[in-house]
Amino acid sequence: MLLLTAGTVHGMGTERSLADDYQSVLLGTHEPPCLSLYQPTSRRHPDNQQDPIRFRNLVRMLEQSLGEATAHAGRPLLARLNEIADDREFWNRSLDGLAVLAAPDLFRVYRLQRPVPELAVVGESFHIKPLLRILQSADRYQVMALSATKIRLFEGNRDALAEVELAEGVPRTLTEALGDELTEPHQTVASYGVRTGGGNDGGATPMRHGHGGKRDEVDMDAERFFRAVDRAILEHHSQPSGLPLLLAALPEHQSRFRAVSRNPSLLAASLDGSPDAMAVDTLRHRAWQVIEPQYLARLAGLVDAFGGAISRGLGSDELREVAMAAVEGRVATLLVDADRHVPGSLDRDSGAVEIAELAGAEIDDLLDDLAEVVLRAGGDAIVVPAERMPTATGLAAIYRY
């Protein structure tokens, strides 16, 4: 996905998406200290001139937070962070946000197409809640821009929409899909014994009859193209992502594609019009008008499910109780407040929590740690806007049993 990409900075790694890194980086176990840095960035001059300054300030916070026991291991990480601060080319390619995850065994830089709050955390594991909010499917969707001869695929959320590189095996154009099977307009020549004149030579003038006019053949090719696209998008994008799919196309292509589609992720709502004539931001705006009601309905459903779980004794919003249930693998779904930070530490073996008096870069966020524990146990962790949270504690858990 292009909502966030891992950049190559001074040999720090190959281009990867956060989706590729989900299991190995976000949910993986890494050698501490684990440094997490987040900041909003600006795409344009002169606003982006402040970005490296803010970045250096956050690196300084990380440096101050490294204790004596971790200072030696953290020194090479700080050096690599300072390389980023000094890289002018890097800051000329900023998007809307930046995330850096650094540990002795891993270094990732993600450019984000969604702003994130400034944050610098040193911990036993990475702080991942801002990335979970972007990566989770609650408000994500895909848009397929389709014409009779080509397709493009986009992925987005309420804030951003970006083109996705099509997987290998997905045809991008009509020619790529049909190749040698592409139909050419043709005519056949038949002789019907019509005389050329009054002569007795028995000769006949050949008469040309078109079989399968050009329009019919163009329509037939388009239908075969749409079938190939539908199969490939389903296999390589819709099934792996589980995201709803919107179709942006002219009305005549909408109806023809839907007639052959077998993709259960394809939504009934359509984005009518030529996708080539729509700016990406216009496409995002129209797509979000369709997706937002579904997103709000899903959140409302989760809130209702939490209320039902509470009434049956299968839910809680009490931090210590939820922490115990999380390490025991009993949490099926955890809702966490996107804007809430609960400073403290979690014992991932016993579930015991220790609340910190003050927040700081060296203090973990308990909500973030609990979300990570739940995800590792196969549960769902949903980062919810503060105004949609059903509790005042920053979390709401639905238990399996």
Name of the level-1 CATH class of the largest domain = Alpha Beta
Gap between N and C termini, in Å? 35 Å
CATH architecture of the largest domain: 2-Layer Sandwich
The 3D shape can be described as globular
Mean pLDDT: 85
Instruction: Report the uncertain regions.
Output: 1-15, 185-212
Stated plainly, the CATH topology of the largest domain is called: Translation, Eukaryotic Peptide Chain Release Factor Subunit 1, Chain A
Strand order of the largest sheet: 2-1-5-4-3-6
Helix content: 25-40%
Number of helical segments with 4 or more residues: 11
Number of separate domains: 3
Structural class: alpha+beta
Summarize the structure.
By secondary structure, the protein is α+β, with helices and mostly antiparallel strands.
